[in-house]
């Protein structure tokens, strides 16, 4: 049994599994999808005088390794902003680089560029393995970093780090979530050091259009919440 909470999710004519930690698994392709890893975000801030614990990359890689060990995917797709900046790959500590190279060598690994790490000429061609693309179409699903309001095909993306904020038993609770419409599915950020936008933020609503839902995987089902347009 996979030691993660996940829930079935039908999207674009495909059967997927939404994991509670923000990853998405595609059983028919044995593919794992994650968004917004933001490796070396802490070191980026440190260079600008804001000191943060320098363990975010190792923590993210530990979480990712646990999912890979549990699911044994043949393909891994990273939906952009995998590094916090174009030089993030160079700053990975030796232990993190070794872990990442082990992961990229064990599956068909594809990095999709994002706004933080974009550019084939920005020193990101070798990201400790894998291949780099701007976007892809896989079995009818568009994979890109940021959702396009003009896209009519089923689309998987990241970028916004969506979170749902609720009032539960007198307490304010925030949870990472997926945002879905019939043709849009935004993944939450998988990185250990990432913030997030409320699901009803105007930029998310603009990208996905009306009628969106926030989805939170719990055990074997999805909790669904309407997103205010």
From TrEMBL:
Domain of life: Bacteria
Cross-referenced PANTHER family: BLR1149 PROTEIN
Protein name (database record): Ligase-associated DNA damage response endonuclease PdeM
Taxonomic source organism: Sphingomonas glacialis
């Amino acid at each position: 049994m996979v030691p993660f909470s996940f829930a079935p999710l039908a999207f674009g004519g495909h059967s997927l599994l939404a994991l509670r930690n923000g990853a998405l698994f595609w059983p028919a392709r044995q593919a794992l999808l994650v968004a917004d890893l933001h490796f070396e975000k802490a070191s980026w801030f440190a260079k600008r005088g804001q000191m943060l614990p320098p363990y975010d990359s190792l923590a993210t890689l530990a979480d990712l390794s646990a999912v890979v060990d549990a699911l044994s995917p043949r393909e891994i797709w990273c939906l952009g902003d995998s590094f916090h900046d174009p030089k993030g790959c160079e700053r990975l500590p030796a232990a993190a680089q070794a872990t990442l190279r082990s992961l990229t060598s064990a599956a068909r690994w594809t990095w999709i560029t994002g706004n933080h790490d974009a550019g084939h000429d920005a020193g990101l061609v070798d990201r400790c393995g894998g291949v780099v693309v701007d976007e892809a179409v896989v079995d009818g699903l568009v994979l890109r970093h940021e959702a396009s309001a003009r896209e009519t095909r089923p689309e998987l993306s990241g970028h916004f780090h969506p979170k749902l904020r609720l009032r539960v038993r007198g307490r304010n609770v925030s949870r990472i979530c997926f945002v879905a419409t019939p043709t849009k599915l935004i993944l939450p950020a998988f990185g250990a050091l990432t913030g997030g936008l409320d699901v009803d933020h105007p930029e998310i609503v603009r990208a996905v259009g009306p009628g969106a839902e926030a989805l939170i995987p719990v055990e074997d089902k999805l909790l669904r919440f309407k997103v205010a347009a």
